[in-house]
Amino acid sequence: MVKPDKVLDAARRQMAQRLATAGVTHHEVLQAMATVPRHAFIDPGLVAQAYEDSSLPIGREQTISKPSVVAKMIQALMQNHKKMGRVLEIGTGCGYQAAVLSLLSEEVYSVERIRSLHDSARAKLRPFRIANLRLIYADGIRGLAQAAPFDGIILAAAGLGIPDPLLDQLAIGGKLIAPVAKSETEQQLLLIERLSSQRYQRTTMDEVFFVPLQSGTI
Residue 149's Cα: distance from chain center in Å? Predict the structure, then answer.
């Protein structure tokens, strides 16, 4: 009889193959997506859906993003690089994207404003013993000045714009990717590259749907 983990391993590899077909071309990103067990970060009752291209609830009205969205956002940050330097993630959620980022970056700092999600993500990530990942319970809108500047910043929630502290904490030559709300029902991914201390280049990408970016800790 085939062990359940063998089935999930095969499903994860198939997911990575679908991502490649859907336009994810970055080899290291595909490898990371094929490596991190997404099923370990979701409710056991949803494991059968772990490798479908769908967002899933993780509690507190939050979700784990679609694998295709995770892969495309990280690919946009990395572009022609095989590895990133220091990366900031705003919205740890269940910890899945942070685990993927840890395989593609020298250092990852992941900030979560909801205490119960922060604690849950820490528990889910503990068995993986990821040495280059730091989880922080804080208000992500403020960024993480003590660890700045960042070569990459990725937001897992949509605001009306990009908070100024995050733009300030982006290294020159660094990239930030975030969903930005155009209206109550429309959001787009925005990729920002810092060209100099005062100059930023903005590129609009795909239509997406994320939970709202909120301030404060709870």
Answer: 18
Q: pTM higher than 0.85, yes or no? A: yes
Give every strand in the sheet of 84-90, ordered side by side: 133-137, 105-112, 84-90, 150-155, 170-181, 187-194, 200-208
> CA distances (Å), 102 to each of 52, 88, 132, in order?
22, 11, 6
- The yes-or-no answer on residue 65 being catalytic is yes
CA torsion angle 163 168 170 172 (round to 10): 140
Phi, psi angle pair for 103, to nearest 5°? -80, -10
* CB 152 within 8 Å of CB 87: yes
pLDDT tens track for 88-126: 999 999 999 999 999 999 999 999 999 999 999 999 999
- pLDDT tens sequence across 141-177: 999 999 999 999 999 999 999 999 999 999 999 999 9
- Count each helix (H run) and each strand (E run) in the chain, helices first: 6, 9
Burial of 202 (0-12, 13-18, 19+ CB in 10 A): exposed
From 65, 68, 102, 110, active-site residue? 65
Grouping H, G, I as helix, E, B as strand and the rest as coil, residue 19 is helix
